[in-house]
Amino acid sequence: MPKPLAVQLYTFRDPARFGGAGMGLDHETLEAIAGIGYLGVETVDVPGGDPVAARRVLDGLGLAVTSSHTWGSIDDLDGFAARSAAVAELGAGTIIVSGPGFATVPEVDAFTDRLNAAAAVAMKAGLRLGYHNHDAEMDPVADIPAYTRMIDRLDPTVALQVDIFWVVVGGAVPAEVIAQAGERVVSLHIKDGAVLPEKASGSAPFVNVPIGQGVVDVAGAITAADRLPGIGWLIVEFDYFDGSPVEAVRASYADLTGRGLGRGSVA
């Protein structure tokens, strides 16, 4: 059976309306997401700041919380513990962080050690720590991709969320990265682009396109993920879109369900 589809709420960020990227609790948008047929959302910390209120709204719409990204730093473990507690109260089972990119082996190792320490903090809140890649992890460090060294050093409890768009920007093949990451992979970020940026960090804004309209081999990535035991969600995300983000996620839903690559509540 195809894996369930969700949306990363960062797609709908609008500081003027929501008070910060992905941080608002916008009922109209959430209703549209549920109406399209998506089964869940991935948040950025707690939408609106009140986990009980956010959970009530999402439950009422039948939207699961797949996981939550956090803007909290793993270098501040007390602060990370507080964010983990809020995410756990929201109902997520995984709290997701990302990294800064790496130039040397010691940088990779030091960051991985910090991830492992943060994983222990998350576990105290009943959460699993997840790591979300960008393109820099695909760069070689001492002749192997930084991602490879990270995977080898991560505590077994740390999950991986593979962003297939940034894998392609980094010059790697999503299906191969997913296979290498193996049973750690719990979700994919699904997004596409007709013209790829040079890199994530410091690059000029670019435009994502609805799934199936760009150059990313989405089907190959999902097929690779379907072979893994731990994969739970396919999460659609747009960093930038020229037009209505609701219509963008609607078109992506139609493509993914139409090709039998994902499932939702609406055929």
Overview of the molecule:
- With 267 residues, this protein is α/β, with parallel strands linked by helices.
- The chain is 39% helix and 18% strand.
- The two termini are 14 Å apart.
- The protein has helices at 15-18, 27-36, 51-61, 77-90, 105-124, 146-153, 164-169, 174-181, 218-226, 245-258; strands at residues 3-8, 40-44, 64-69, 94-98, 128-132, 140-141, 144-145, 159-163, 185-190, 233-236, 262-263.
- Strand 4 (94-98), helix 5 (105-124) and strand 5 (128-132) form a beta-alpha-beta unit.
Features:
267 residues; alpha/beta; eight-stranded parallel beta barrel; two-stranded antiparallel ribbon; 10 helices; 39% helix; globular
Order of helices and strands: EHHEHEHEHEEEHEHHEHEHE
Number of helices: 10
Name the overall outline: globular
> Strand order across the biggest sheet?
1-2-3-4-5-8-9-10
Uncertain runs are 17-22
β-strand amount: 15-25%
Structural class: alpha/beta
Helix fraction?
25-40%
Q: How widely separated are the two ends?
A: 14 Å
